Amino acid sequence: MDNETKYQKELIVNWHITEACNHRCNYCFAKWDKQNNELMNNEESVSKLMDEIQKLPSILNNKYLTKFESIRLNLVGGETFLNLRKVTKIIHQAKQRQFNLSAITNGSRLNDELIELIADSFGSIGFSVDSLENATNIEIGRTEKNSVMNTNKVLTNINHIKKLNPSIDIKINTVVSSLNRLENLSTFIDKASPNKWKVFKVLPVVTRENEISQYDFIQFVQRHSKFEDIISSENNDEMTDSYLMIDPIGRFFQNSILGNGYSYSRPIINIGIDKALDETKFDANKFHNRYRNNLISSHQVS
């Protein structure tokens, strides 16, 4: 099966398993209206959510005439790997249901044990890298205590993962804001050699701080045009209402482009995933086009 056919048939569900993070990025949108404990703290609730997620391909195929045959569960944070014991249980539950797995991480918690787990269990792993400059990373908030994000360590971990699993997809996620809009990340991307580089225009969900113009965003993308074969760039409109996203307490949610938070469904395990999907603001045309475009380019898959 070629990549285009594979991606067309794979449904990506983004589960933000925790809001907790050891970094404090000032434009991070992982801040939810929490009402209960995070779902990952209850193994039975995790199992119920997985059972509901398993129903999604047939629901979407019926509603939107898509042709999904499999599920990729993308684990996101906060920082995804802060609690390795709980994440390992989630991975086990996903594997039992034959979900494909991917994750996004800032890379700070990776050690030999976690690298082996990623290489063995994940088909794709993404690293959040916004800047190569210590001063900029400090201003962004990519620090833990007195330690600044180490992009050289990220490169070492990527090489280690690739060595253990040469077929794994490596992805880099970059948020472009007023703090890094003039930066050139080419040296890092050359060394990381990712399968995909997702470049996002900072989304003003929680705050409008560090916003940039569309012109500045386009300039950043064009500055890195040598990577056009792997770049997938998304402005604010493209990021809004076009993803299937679940928050830490198990609700569908969608970003607001107006800077006033999110729209939520009721908890999925309480009302079922079909009803929860109907309760969230969700643009079926954007969603359908996102996957239909995979017939043209596999680089456009989330």
Low-confidence stretches: 1-7, 293-302
Which CATH class is shown?
Answer: Alpha Beta
Number of strands: 12
Work out the radius of gyration: 18 Å
- Determine the CATH topology: TIM Barrel
List the strand order in the largest sheet.
9-8-7-4-3-2-1-10
What is the number of helical segments per DSSP (H or I, 4+ residues)? 13
Secondary-structure-based class equals: alpha/beta
| Strand residues, percent | 15-25%
Q: Sheet bearing the most strands, described?
A: 8 strands, parallel
Give the SSE order as H and E letters: HEHHEHEHEHEEHEHEHEHEEEHHH
CATH superfamily membership, which one? Aldolase class I
Fraction of residues in helices?
25-40%
How would you state the average pLDDT, rounded? 87
What is the total domain count? Answer: 1
Protein name: S-adenosylmethionine-dependent nucleotide dehydratase
Cofactor: [4Fe-4S] cluster
Keywords: 4Fe-4S, Antiviral defense, Iron, Iron-sulfur, Metal-binding, S-adenosyl-L-methionine
Pfam families: Radical_SAM (PF04055)
Account of the 3D structure:
With 302 residues, the protein is an alpha/beta fold. The chain has one domain: TIM Barrel, CATH 3.20.20.70. The protein contains 13 helices and 12 strands. The protein has helices at 3-9, 43-53, 56-64, 84-96, 112-121, 134-140, 151-164, 186-192, 214-223, 236-239, 268-271, 273-279, 284-292; strands at residues 10-16, 70-76, 100-105, 124-128, 143-144, 147-148, 169-176, 196-201, 231-234, 245-246, 253-255, 262-264. It has an 8-stranded parallel sheet. A two-stranded antiparallel sheet has the order 5-6. Helix 8 (186-192) links the parallel strand 7 (169-176) and strand 8. Helix 2 (43-53) runs parallel beside helix 4 (84-96) and helix 5 (112-121) crosses helix 7. It is globular. The model is unreliable at 1-7 and 293-302 (pLDDT under 50).
